[in-house]
Model the fold of this input.
Amino acid sequence: MTLQELIDTCGLESVFVPDAQVPVTAAYTSDLLSDVMAHCPDESVLVTVQNHKNTVAVCTLVGAAAILVVHRREIPEDMLAAARREGVALLRTPDDQFAVSCKLGAALKK
Amino acid sequence: MSEAPQTPDASDAKNEPEPAAVNEPLVLLELIQRLKVRDVMTAKLVTVSRKDTLREAQELMKQKKISGIPVEENGRFFGLVSVDDIIRALGGGYIDDACSRHMTTQLVVLEDDMPLSFALRYFDRYHYGRFPVLNRDRRLVGIICQRDINRALLVELANELNRLETSFGQTPGLDGAYSIYVLREYPICKYDFENAGKAANQIKKVLQEKQFPPKVIRRIAVAAYELEINLCVHSDGGVLSWQVSNGRAEIIARDAGPGIEDVEWACRDGTSTANEWIRSLGFGAGMGLVNVKRVSDEFEITSKKGSGTTVKCVINIDLPVAT
Done:
């Protein structure tokens, strides 16, 4: 499915979406960047509490399409700037990791 | 009257606006991070003592064609006499007074082991013509002005160019599959989370441009990223280098300290010496070296407590290896 379809289905907040039509085939939930480096699939949405620019660097390296920040944590300016530079989408949700992971799992199964 | 010179600390820098240099070409960025103030400063100093007169200082400035003279005795730094001080002395009729009475004592100084990027930031911030340089023992060891920086950068750029020309001259096997020859080095500074991951990202982009297989790119990116973060988190600063030639990608992280006491322990999954602050940033999970080993075909680590650590990993590009 496309990123836009996922955003609509799960009711996610779009903070920055450079290309809403990119395919999303998976999701990965983790707050440890080395774990993300090791296991996060490409074309995925990373669900995390880590609202800083290093998360963007990691997503760029693994080819993740978007970062979904939980608990509607604030997105710092430098994180937004990094996302713009690297073309990584930034999303937010008021949900916690588990709740939003369930929603993403259900949406991606369709 | 003597006021202690102030040395800027790292926390100052965090609140600074981005220096103009961030828009400079990459090679310049690398240079200003790699070079230390001591590499650039003028170490052969022309100085006066506190009892010397401002007239003597003026004469020296004229002879040596300089616009400021440090006041020091046996390495101890007391202040600076600048052209402005001399002009005021001439106007005020006290040019024959001792330097100690009129020298500038409220000074910002730099330390000799600070990176050049720090000095540039302070030239940008304070608009002073020069900064005295002290060593860790607070002894005066040099002075740095914008001209020193320009000269050092030109010399280093010429060296860089020579190095590139030499490496291109030795390029092996350009026609074979994945036999491009790339050799790059990235200086990595301790706790520089601002730039953490940039080297790995640049490596990935080069490999994408060369149309390497995505799985290979990912393995190389994982190794480069983890080694880069390790240098940033655990070392006192070091260099990440990589090269691809004849179907092999070789990535080396080298630092000069502090060294690892128990290498075997450090390579175990989940073990880390990272503090809470680093963990809160998502680092320090103790998975870094494990990840590097996992994606590598060859892995080697040598370290000694009190000296440096070198980690070398090789990824065979032509061989299919499970990730």
Summary: The first strand of chain B starts at residue 68 and ends at 73.
